[in-house]
Amino acid sequence: MLHPVSRAATTSDAFNAVAEPRRRDILNYLALEERPVSEIVDALRLEQPSVSKHLRVLRDVGLVHVRRQGRQMLYRTNAHAIRPVHEWTARFERLWRHQLDRIKQRAEARMAELEIAKAKMDDEKSK
């Protein structure tokens, strides 16, 4: 009998936090520069309460830093905290690249076979 495994809270670590697609979108948007919540809301076309909630989760696990500038809260990514996620996914990137290389080799070999077969058919037609 299988017992359900409880899922870790999204606020428990970076891996769980980035499991949510909108949080990944926010991290991508913040990757190049620090931005206020209003810009994130406008750019990603999300509701402000939703963005604030996601930013709180990202901040709680250390993936974003926040600072106050006047009345605005400015958010930026914490590259150091994202590093473990990047390193883990890099392992799979190598696997995917290897798989894509194999697919490419098979496709190129198949194309070569088809070109040879077509050339033979054209040759037979010209006789």
Structure report:
The protein is mainly α and 127 residues long. It has two domains: 14-77, Winged helix-like DNA-binding domain superfamily/Winged helix DNA-binding domain (Arc Repressor Mutant, subunit A, Orthogonal Bundle), CATH 1.10.10.10; 88-127. It is 65% helix and 11% strand. It has five helices and three strands. It has helices at 14-17, 21-30, 37-44, 48-60, 79-126; strands at residues 35-36, 64-69, 72-77. The protein has a three-stranded antiparallel sheet with strand order 1-3-2. Strand 2 (64-69) and strand 3 (72-77) form a beta hairpin. The model has no long low-confidence stretch (mean pLDDT 88).
**Based on DSSP secondary structure assignment, what is the total number of beta strands?**
3
Taken together, the total number of domains comes to 2
The chain-level structural class is mainly alpha
Question: Between the first and last Cα atoms, what is the distance in angstroms?
Answer: 70 Å
Q: Which class of the largest domain in CATH terms?
A: Mainly Alpha
Please bin the fraction of helical residues. 55-70%
Low-confidence stretches: none
The CATH superfamily label of the largest domain reads Winged helix-like DNA-binding domain superfamily/Winged helix DNA-binding domain
- The Rg value, from CA coordinates, equals 24 Å
The CATH topology of the largest domain, please?
Arc Repressor Mutant, subunit A
What pattern of helices and strands is seen along the backbone? Answer: HHEHHEEH
CATH architecture of the largest domain: Orthogonal Bundle
Number of helices: 5
| Biggest β-sheet description | 3 strands, antiparallel
Strand content: 5-15%
